[in-house]
Each structure stands twice: as C-alpha cells, then as structure tokens.
Design a protein that fits this description.
Shape: globular
Distance between the termini: 33 Å
Oligomer: single chain
Radius of gyration: 18 Å
C-alpha cells in the first residue's frame, strides 16, 4: 500500500499518512492509473453536486478549477514548460534549458489558456447534454486513461535525462515489471468499457492511443527523449482531447454508457 500512497501524494493533494521508503517510490508508477481513478471518482462526485447547485457553465468552470486543485497543477505546469520549450523553435539543447526554467514564458501562458478554455467548454457541453450518471461515468474514466498513457510513456519511451531523475530507467521504469504494466493496462481498458460502454469506451481508448503515439513521437523528434514535464503535458493533452472526443461523439448522436 505504501507504493500506492507514494503515487497518490505525488500526483494529488490528497493527504495520506504512510511510511516513506525509496523502494516504494520506484514501485509507485504502476499505481498511476489507480490514482487517476481516484481523481475520477472525486470529479464524478463533485460534478454531480455542482450540477445540482449551479447552472452548467458555472458548474463546468468550478469543476475544472477543482480538477486543477486536486492535482496541485502538477501536470499543467509540465504542459506550460513543454509549450515554452517546443514553442521556442530553438535548438534541442536550448529547448531543454527553457523547459527546466521555473519561469513561464508567453507560449506557456497561451498554451495554458487555450487548454483550460477547451476543458471548461467541453465539460460544460458534456454536463449540458448528458444526464448525471453518464457524464459522471465519463469523468470517472478520463483521468485514469490519461495516467495510463503516462505509465506507458515511462515504460516504453526513453527518458531524456538518463543519468538522473526519478523517472529514469533506474527509477520509476526500473520499478515496473512487464506483468504489472500489462495488468494496469487491461484493468484501465476494462474500467473504461464498463464506465462508458463498448462503443464510447473503445473510441476514447483509441483516442488515448493515437494521442500517446503522436505526442511522444513529436517529443522524441525534437528532444530525443521524454521528461517529467513531458509526462505532465501528455496527461493534460490526453484529458483535454478525450473530453473533446466525448463531446463530438455525443454531438453526432452517440451515447455514453450502456
């Protein structure tokens, strides 16, 4: 359980008490999708309450605000740093330096504004066009799939700073076994299908895979590896495009859930 608590405290603001050990940190990545499911449960419950108390537009804005708060803005910070680096159109070395800079540049601010705007509008449209049980199921599954994509990035794609960092081959990747990864993958897909139905679940899983491959391939081309910022950016992009995909699916007459 300590490995799960380690993942929970790293990816969220949820307070837990546990005995930290470095070995638990190395094993924690396998629980990232489960942490995403915990976040999804909180979003599903919050969306139901907010949808009851407020009009859909305000409820959507408050829900996205809570979404940022519960994750501590961790992934959003990675998204802004990545946007600053890639948006600079400089050499590989200079892009990496920019991503390490704690200051946020113009490209990061613009990217943050665009991403959050899309998230808020998408959540609003979902809440406005679906009954509570269906949009709650969607919000339950999306954070889980985004963190499953992050887990796959740690397991399959080269880390940018091979000799340092907790995400290196000696760190998080080294704590992952083949079977722990496969089990996490299958459970994530199973929960997505149960929550969203066979057709919507398969579509959203397909979107997750496509975003994962395109986004990471772009980073490999530009940076020759992934970093902690890259993982955070991937989570944000995946969550946002899954929301957009769900909106399009519903708009075209599809149904979320069974």
């Amino acid at each position: 359980m300590n490995a799960f608590f380690s993942a929970l405290t790293f990816l969220t603001r949820i307070p837990v008490t546990y005995t930290y050990a470095e070995s638990d940190w190395y094993k924690s990545a396998r629980f990232y999708p489960l942490v995403g499911l915990v976040i999804g449960c909180l979003l599903a419950l919050s969306s139901s309450l907010l949808g009851y108390l407020f009009p859909d537009m305000l409820a959507g804005l408050l829900l996205v605000s809570f979404w940022i708060w519960v994750t501590g803005g961790l992934h959003l910070d990675g998204w802004m740093d990545t946007a600053d680096g890639l948006g600079s159109a400089r050499t590989r070395e200079r892009m990496i330096e920019i991503m390490k800079d704690s200051r946020v540049g113009a490209m990061g601010v613009i990217a943050c504004f665009v991403l959050l705007s899309i998230k808020v509008i998408s959540v609003y449209l979902i809440m406005n066009n679906l009954v509570v049980i269906r949009y709650a199921a969607l919000l339950l599954a999306i954070p889980m799939m985004a963190r499953m994509s992050m887990l796959a990035s740690i397991y399959y794609w080269p880390y940018l700073h091979q000799k340092s960092g907790k995400g290196s081959a000696q760190g998080l990747k080294g704590g992952l076994s083949k079977w722990s990864f496969i089990i996490s993958l299958l459970l994530s897909f199973f929960i997505m299908i149960i929550a969203c139905g066979i057709w919507a679940g398969s579509l959203l899983t397909g979107i997750t895979i496509v975003v994962h491959l395109l986004f990471n391939s772009k980073l490999m081309k530009e940076l020759h590896g992934l970093s902690g910022d890259s993982y955070g950016a991937l989570v944000e992009v995946t969550e946002t495009l899954l929301l957009v995909g769900a909106v399009s699916y519903v708009h075209l007459g599809g149904m979320i859930g069974w």
